[in-house]
């Protein structure tokens, strides 16, 4: 490049002019326009259609990619909405299951409590019957003891043995009359 510049400088000095960037050289301008036109014609015939076709193909490819991206976005939005609905349905179903489980648990609790109360009442009734039976046995035993003690006391007083069956009946009747008074 430097040698070209030096050559141009030498030519211009030989011509007797100093090169100035503001001076217009008509011959140079014509050659520049000719070379530009020739280059433009060659490019228009050979390279320009290839470049336009490449630009169009790229534009079409970008449009397809944009359309495909839009379609994928729409599908993703649809899937997201489906997932949201499924999640809402699952939450509702879980709440329903929990509510049913609570209801069943409350029913079971009530049934168990009722059964426990019933068993307690049965045990209480059984205990009362057992107490009544034991009381009756104790009263009967006390009467026998009282009869025996009374007979022993009477036998000591009389110092004679009386008929034990008749005496026993007599004392039992007397104790019954005492029991009916109270």
Task: Describe what you observe in this structure.
With 182 residues, the chain is an all-alpha fold. The protein has one domain. It has 3 helices and no strands. The protein has helices at 2-15, 26-158, 164-181. α2 (26-158) crosses α3. The longest helix has 133 residues, at 26-158. 0% of the residues are buried.
Describe the sheet with the most strands. none
Give me the strand/helix succession. HHH
Work out the number of β strands: 0
How many helix segments? 3
The level of helicity is over 70%
- What Rg do the Cα atoms give? 65 Å
Number of structural domains: 1
What best-fitting shape do the alpha-carbon axes yield? rod-shaped
Give the overall pLDDT as a whole number. Answer: 82
Beta-strand content? under 5%
Structural class: mainly alpha
Q: Low-confidence stretches at least 5 residues in length (pLDDT < 50)?
A: none
Give the distance, in angstroms, between the N- and C-terminal Cα atoms. 150 Å
Record the SSE blueprint.
Elements: H1 2-15, H2 26-158, H3 164-181
Helix pairs in contact: 2-3
